[in-house]
Amino acid sequence: MISFLKKRKRAIIGVLALILLFLITLAIDRLMSFRDNPITIVLLAFFWIGFVYLLKPSFVKKYWKLIVLFYVPLLLFFTYIRLFSVDFEAYAKIKEDIHFLFLLVPLPLFLGLCLWIYQQWKWVQNLKAEKSKTELSLLRAQINPHFFFNTLNNLYALTIKNSKQAPNVILKLSDMMRYTIYEGEKETVKLGDEIEYLNNYIELHKIRYKKTVDISFKHEIDTSLSIAPLLFIILLENAFKHGIETLTENAFIHIKLYEDKEFINFEIENNFDPKEISETNGIGLTNLKGRLALIYQKKYELDSCQENNTYKVTLKISKHA
């Protein structure tokens, strides 16, 4: 018990001081010839400041200038009205109706509550922003490296054969890796750069196939428009992986990139072998949905449809996001 009292000595002294201050305030208020005098207001103001300080010393130390900024003008105004108002009876009636005294003196509590709520809200918003930023970084890091490994293997085969295609493959692969590493970290890129990236991807894939593949990429769009990087590539990867890779003949991928008044539209359609349908969606599409939700929230549409052995995906992204 003695140990507890020693540890709480400062708090106990503070509580006793506040009680004493409150009793003195009441006594002065009773003894003065008129109620709610300036002395009473000042003492009650100190009582509430002390009360808040007892609960949260750091708050009073941090915001004491703001508390003074609120209190001093109000106390001066109240003193002037209370002592020098010519229409004292009108003032007294207004004061009695709205309980002006009780609205004034707990100001530090009200101020503290508002600031605390704001700080908590700001902290939550910052936490959400950091969480989203971290998640987005992880999703960007998950871009499938499988393509690069395959391309390097193909490049190795071309160099052994002394193929004239090898230098071109090296240049395209270098451009793609640069784009993935440097441009992929940016919040937005120009559509023109994204289109070039997709074209390089398509050209490198064509080198791999000895079979006839119908790949078309039509883009009628303002290439200066901005968009988050490396979104379309996931849909294109899926079209190759689950379409062309599974077919021995008549494989196709048709891509359209265009704009309307509200959206940037990306459509990709491919055929596939129904016997080779994967039971799992893989991380690619999940990755894409996660990134879209983080970056564009509700300002996008992602739809897919399957008819016979044809699969089509449409991605719409708001131009005003």
Commentary on this structure:
It is a single chain. This protein has 321 residues and is α+β, with helices and mostly antiparallel strands. It folds into 2 domains: 2-131; 142-318, Histidine kinase-like ATPase, C-terminal domain (Heat Shock Protein 90, 2-Layer Sandwich), CATH 3.30.565.10. Helices cover 63% and strands 15% of the residues. The protein has a 5-stranded mixed β-sheet with strand order 2-4-5-7-6, covered by helices on one side. The protein has a two-stranded antiparallel sheet with strand order 1-3. Helix 8 (146-160) runs antiparallel to helix 9 and helix 11 (232-242) packs antiparallel against helix 12. It starts with a helix and ends with a strand. The mean pLDDT is 76.
Describe how the helices and strands are arranged.
Layout: H1 2-7, H2 9-31, H3 38-55, H4 57-84, H5 88-98, H6 100-104, H7 107-141, H8 146-160, H9 166-182, E1 189-190, H10 191-208, E2 213-220, E3 226-227, H11 232-242, E4 251-259, E5 263-271, H12 282-295, E6 300-307, E7 310-318
Parallel strand pairs: 2-4
Antiparallel strand pairs: 1-3, 4-5, 5-7, 6-7
Helix pairs in contact: 2-3, 3-4, 3-7, 4-7, 7-12, 8-9, 9-10, 11-12
